[in-house]
């Protein structure tokens, strides 16, 4: 699981994309938008309830330690290489996620819909 920030209007108005990556299928299996708070993590975890995971790989952000089972939670960069690569792919293909860009959203609703539609087409749609 990882999170990635972007902004709406100005860099003071940060928006976070949270998502869960399944390495075997190289797909995003769930995503959520919001602030970098426990509430947004809970929203993502609610979407992940139907799945059974052997372990979760995350960074050292304290909310992960609070809400993920300790025995199945791996903290560090060892297994997060592919999800970090996915972050780079997002920033390359979606200019709204670039930190230095003239392309940005003016409303949170449009921002979430554009990124959500991209994720839907690239990761959720079955051919």
Structural class of the secondary elements? alpha+beta
* Beginning-to-end CA distance, first to last residue: 25 Å
Let me know the number of strands: 5
| Strand content bin | 25-35%
Strands in their spatial order, largest beta sheet: 1-2-3
Biggest β-sheet, characterized?
3 strands, antiparallel
Number of helices: 4
Structure description:
- With 127 residues, the chain is α+β, with helices and mostly antiparallel strands.
- The chain has 4 helices and 5 strands, in the order E-E-E-H-E-H-E-H-H.
- The protein has helices spanning 38-47, 62-67, 81-93, 108-124, and strands spanning 2-8, 10-22, 27-34, 56-58, 73-75.
- A hairpin with a 1-residue loop joins strand 1 (2-8) and strand 2 (10-22).
- The radius of gyration is 14 Å and the shape is globular.
- The model has no long low-confidence stretch (mean pLDDT 84).
What secondary-structure arrangement, pairings included, does this model have?
Elements: E1 2-8, E2 10-22, E3 27-34, H1 38-47, E4 56-58, H2 62-67, E5 73-75, H3 81-93, H4 108-124
Parallel strand pairs: 4-5
Antiparallel strand pairs: 1-2, 2-3
